[in-house]
Specification:
heterodimer, A: alpha/beta, elongated, B: 565 residues, alpha+beta, 6-stranded antiparallel sheet
Chain lengths: 208, 565
């Protein structure tokens, strides 16, 4: 990843501070999109490359924390760095619990912010890779027939071929064929590999 | 014969009665010149009433040959015995009585006849039958010679002189009557003069009492600037001695500081036009160089265009009390302001951190642009640092202004700018409570003469109240409208509307009372102080309900006559 691909959203209702932050980030070669409100940010298109959000906690209309909640509820996870002029602890705890990268009281050191931004962008990169990987797996999973999915679900649950044949009311040889198809389509090298993939796809029941 | 005897004196007695005035025109030859002069001089020489009465009674008794005499003077509606003269062994005693006339003093029917007809009655022998025989006094006191004559001045009854002799009839002979009549006319004039004189001295005494009581300063002055006379109260006020007055050192024009010359001129103009001037406030220099605030009212002396009298009231204590009250109010307002600022502390910290964060960011950017040798970008960053530095300074200045303990100072105020200032100060607080502010500021609002800090305090107070009121109600749009408007070209109305729960109509009239509060931690002074501040600016502050819900607090400030656009 290079900074040149990265995009930083700055959301603060204070025009001067917005401009200063944009200036600072541009001085280290980051691309910046500055927004005056959460609503304005939501109207902006998502970038292709890695991005993160520098967000003021207190905003007119939709507040920073509410925006964080909305983003988490949707699938638009974007690493968030909170900045605030009222460094109050309960608020920072809430923000961090909800997955914020950093919570910086104003005025902050430039390096603190830049470090946080890089950390956030790294996190976004990783998340994007994860997401890309998951999407690839999902595409493979989509190629499975309903019968193959039934077989895969029982395989990752640790059932033997005989048991699967009994449960599905078919022959052990048929199950064996489905099993080979599943391993090939999912590009799994071993059963353990298949279980990991199933986990990534969220097919496993939650661990107790 | 006896019957004739009885009848005869009666007939004789009748004579003077029907023609009493005949004695007034008594022949001049009856008058003894020396007596006339003596009588005339004695009576007319007296101006003091008591002395006059004494002389009059002595003279009357001596020259009429009476044994007892009464002087009766009308006092209001009543006739009073003013003095009674009696003859002792060889001298006449005059006693001042001042009592109502009773039937024990004299024959009342005779007196009433004289008063009614203004004619003299002479009874040569009252013991014989006469028109007044029925009078109880004449019967009981056995009076013989009786004379009752009116003292007239231009046909007005000044008094009545009553003389009697119990022993001898026919005492009041024509010769004596001539003297008595002359005496009567002299006495009438002198009595009237003495009465006027006594009235005058009485009135003079009343005025003198006012002057000498020294409750207020009193000054007789002339247009040249001289103080002709002054009482001790005035001299004490200005710290001068009587010798300064006599020497002409204390001149009222010089006693007046330049700043009050105009007030003096106005008063003099009023005096020239109407002869009086309404009381007005001014100051005098004291001899020690200090100043004394006074209330002065004056009038020209009757018939004079260059001399007058003035009263001067020392206002030092009242001014001191006013100052103390004003100071107390200012202190209270200051405390209320600090309380509001205390509530705002968190917001204010945010308000300052904002530009500080911008300064740090821009300065960091500047360093980086310099390292990259992008001088134009570096320059822009540096300019931003400067601008943000100023912005932080302005915020601190606003807070310091509001927190400072400044005396009331009226300047030409741009109310719209004042509103924007206060909104900037409360910006974070507004945001913290998720309140959306809308402003409708009229462009034609003229400048107003007022105290910037105090008007800011009122606005801040109303804003904070509105924000707090709305934070009480649940979610939903919390909206605040601030507007300015020129109404009827005479006043500017500033309104702060909120969408809060509104006002309890029952407590509406108590809202502006001191120490009335609906907040758990409120002092209950905000609105009371706000109202007194607006009142001190000649304006009004009131509250009404907003439609569809919430409250509106508005205040109107009058445009000064010298208002500029």
């Amino acid at each position: 990843m290079t900074d040149a691909d990265a995009l930083v959203f700055v959301v603060d209702d204070d025009a001067s501070l917005r401009a200063s932050l944009q200036d600072l980030l541009e001085s280290v070669g980051l691309q910046v999109v500055a927004c005056a409100s959460a609503q304005e940010f939501l109207r902006r298109p998502r970038p292709e490359g890695p991005s993160c959000l520098v967000l003021d906690v207190r905003l007119p209309g939709l507040s920073g924390l509410e925006l964080q909640r909305q983003l988490a509820a949707g699938d638009l996870t974007l690493p968030i760095i909170f900045i605030t002029g009222h460094g109050d602890i309960p608020m920072s705890v809430q923000a961090m619990k909800a997955g914020a990268v950093e919570f910086l009281p104003k005025p902050f050191r430039d390096q603190e912010l830049l470090d946080a931004i890089h950390q956030a962008l790294d996190r976004d990169c990783y998340a994007r890779e994860q997401r890309a990987q998951r999407e690839a797996l999902r595409r493979r999973f989509d190629t499975l027939t309903p019968r193959q999915r039934d077989v895969m679900a029982r395989m990752v649950a640790g059932r033997l071929n005989k048991q699967i044949a009994g449960e599905l009311g078919t022959s052990e040889a048929t199950v064996k064929t489905h099993r080979q198809q599943v391993m090939a389509k999912m590009r799994a090298e071993s059963l353990a590999d298949l279980i990991r993939i199933a986990d990534q796809l969220g097919l496993l029941p939650p661990k107790s | 014969v006896r019957q004739l005897d009885q009848l005869y004196p009666h007939l004789r007695e009748e004579k003077p009665v029907p023609a009493p005035t005949s004695t007034i025109g008594a022949p001049v030859e009856h008058l003894d010149l020396a007596t006339v002069i003596k009588v005339s001089q004695a009576v007319s020489g007296e101006i003091v009433l008591e002395n006059l009465i004494d002389t009059l009674m002595h003279t009357a008794i001596e020259h009429a040959g009476a044994e007892r005499g009464l002087l009766i003077l009308p006092r209001g509606d009543e006739l009073r015995v003013e003095a009674e003269a009696t003859t002792g062994s060889d001298r006449v005693t005059v006693g001042l009585r001042q009592a109502s006339v009773t039937a024990e003093d004299l024959p009342e029917s005779v007196l009433h006849y004289v008063v009614r007809t203004k004619e003299t009655v002479i009874l040569d022998d009252a013991s014989v039958q006469n028109p007044f025989s029925a009078d109880a006094y004449l019967r009981q006191h056995h009076a013989r010679s009786v004379l009752c004559l009116p003292l007239l001045k231009q046909a007005t009854l000044i008094g009545v002189l009553y003389l009697e002799n119990h022993l001898t009839p026919h005492v009041f002979t024509p010769a004596r009557m001539a003297v008595i009549t002359l005496l009567a006319s002299e006495a009438a004039i002198s009595l009237e003069n003495a009465r006027l004189y006594s009235e005058l001295t009485e009135r003079d005494a009343r005025i003198r009492r006012l002057v000498e009581a020294n409750v207020i300063g009193i000054v007789i002055w002339n247009l040249d600037g001289r103080i002709l006379e002054a009482n001790d109260a005035f001299l004490r006020m200005v710290g001068y001695g009587r010798e300064d007055l006599v020497s002409g050192r204390a001149r009222w024009r010089e006693l007046t500081p330049d700043t009050w010359r105009a007030a003096d001129e106005q008063a003099l103009a009023a005096l020239a036009a109407t002869g009086i001037c309404e009381p007005f406030e001014k100051e005098y220099f004291r001899k020690d160089g200090g100043r004394v605030p006074v209330l002065v009212g004056a009038a020209l002396l009757e018939g004079r265009q260059d001399e007058g009298v003035a009263f001067v009231l020392d206002l030092t204590e009242r001014k001191w009390a006013e100052e103390a009250l004003r100071q107390a109010q200012a202190d209270l307002a200051h405390v209320a302001r600090l309380t509001t600022l205390g509530e705002l502390t968190a917001s204010i910290a945010h308000e300052i951190n904002q530009p500080l964060a911008a300064v740090v960011s821009s300065a960091s950017a500047c360093v980086r642009w310099l390292a990259a040798q992008d001088l134009e970008k570096a320059r822009q960053s540096a300019l931003r640092v400067i601008a943000e530095g100023h912005r932080a300074g302005e915020i601190i200045g606003r807070i310091r202004n509001l927190a400072k303990k400044a005396p009331l100072q009226k300047d030409w105020l741009d109310l719209n700018a004042t509103i924007r200032d206060v909104l900037a100060l409360a910006h974070s607080e507004v945001q913290r409570h998720g309140v959306v502010v809308e402003t409708h500021l009229a462009a034609d609002v003229p400048l107003i003469l007022g105290d910037r800090i105090q008007v800011q305090q009122v606005l801040l107070n109303l804003l904070m109240n509105a924000i707090e009121a709305m934070s009480g109600v649940g979610a939903g749009p919390h909206k605040l409208w601030v507007s300015s408007e020129l109404v009827a070209a005479t006043e500017v109305v500033i309104a702060v509307r909120d969408s809060g729960p509104g006002l309890d109509p029952q407590s509406l009239d108590r809202l502006f009372e001191a120490f009335y509060t609906t907040k758990p931690h409120g002092l209950g002074l905000g609105l009371a102080i706000s109202r007194s501040i607006i009142a001190a600016h000649g304006g009004r502050l009131w509250a009404t309900a907003n439609v569809p819900h919430g409250a509106v607090f508005q205040f109107a400030l009058p445009i000064g006559s010298e208002g500029v656009g």
